[in-house]
From TrEMBL:
Positions annotated as active site in the UniProt record: 12 (nucleophile), 15 (nucleophile)
Name under which the protein is recorded: Thioredoxin
Site (Deprotonates C-terminal active site Cys): 6
Keyword Disulfide bond: yes
Keywords: Disulfide bond, Electron transport, Redox-active center, Transport
Length: 87
């Protein structure tokens, strides 16, 4: 199973736009993708560990290793295509 990390902050406009999209696709990929949201304000250590400089940043992990990354808000179909390509 792959893991999708969503680095966000509550004050970030594009992050708020992605929040309902993230929740919606979480249901679509149940059992295939583990979803984790990381608030850069409260978990700056993990954000620094991944070198996150802009938010929202989405990171796909396979077996604990980063395999792909996207930065910025995107349409639901783009996010789903990206996930499908990494399953």
């Amino acid at each position: 199973m792959i893991q999708l990390l969503d680095f966000y902050a509550d004050w970030c406009g594009p992050c708020q736009v992605m929040k309902p999209v993230f929740k919606e696709i979480e249901k679509d990929y149940e059992g295939k993708v583990e979803f984790k949201q990381v608030d850069v304000e409260t978990d700056g250590t993990q954000a620094a560990q991944f070198g996150v400089m802009s938010i929202p940043t989405f990171v796909i992990l396979k077996e604990g290793k980063e395999v792909s990354r996207k930065i910025g808000a995107m349409p639901k179909d783009v996010l789903k295509s990206w996930l499908d390509a990494n399953l």
